[in-house]
């Protein structure tokens, strides 16, 4: 896939997948109205805004890295090579981690227990999808390259130093 096509595909997928998971569903839960369940809730709201901003960075970066590799995060248009650059050098699932951080940020910003529960459910569903579908698929597709990556880079909690793949 050409880089331009991959970039357009990634942009479309970005609007559909993360747009729904971290935008539409939290909006349906909160209406994006702030509730202040406790005094001094402004501190939690500031932390929430910071989490949203921080969480968006690896999400956008992951989409860019997939486009550079000639594909999209969508399984139907995935890159032909294993993407192990940028945030993927620290954590295997930077897009999912980033989306979860964005959702938790919204739970804090809007004071929404429902959004916090949604974040927990989203993580459980995503972790199951990764474990039972994505990882076996990547193992079949990329073999020893993926196995070395999986052994060196944690799935959910970033390592402190970036991983560098060995010679191929």
From TrEMBL:
It is found in: Endomembrane system. Pfam families: PEMT. Signal peptide: none annotated. Keywords: Membrane, Transmembrane, Transmembrane helix. It is a multi-pass membrane protein. It comes from Mycobacterium intracellulare. Gene3D superfamilies: 1.20.120.1630. This is Isoprenylcysteine carboxyl methyltransferase. The chain crosses the membrane at residues 38-60, 90-110. GO terms for cellular component: endomembrane system. It comes from the Bacteria. InterPro entries: Phopholipid_MeTrfase (IPR007318). One of its GO terms (molecular function) is transferase activity.
């Amino acid at each position: 896939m050409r880089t331009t096509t991959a970039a357009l595909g990634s942009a479309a997928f970005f609007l559909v997948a993360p747009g729904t998971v971290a935008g539409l569903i939290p909006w349906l839960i909160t209406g994006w109205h702030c509730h202040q369940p406790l005094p001094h809730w402004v501190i939690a709201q500031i932390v929430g805004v910071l989490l949203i901003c921080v969480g968006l960075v690896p999400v956008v970066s992951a989409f860019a890295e997939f486009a550079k590799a000639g594909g999209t995060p969508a399984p139907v248009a995935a890159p032909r090579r294993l993407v192990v650059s940028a945030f993927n050098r620290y954590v295997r699932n930077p897009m999912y981690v980033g989306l979860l951080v964005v959702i938790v940020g919204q739970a804090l910003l809007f004071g929404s227990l429902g959004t916090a529960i949604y974040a927990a459910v989203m993580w459980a569903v995503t972790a199951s999808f990764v474990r039972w579908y994505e990882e076996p698929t990547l193992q079949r597709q990329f073999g020893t390259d993926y196995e070395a990556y999986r052994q060196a880079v944690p799935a959910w909690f970033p390592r402190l130093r970036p991983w560098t793949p060995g010679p191929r």
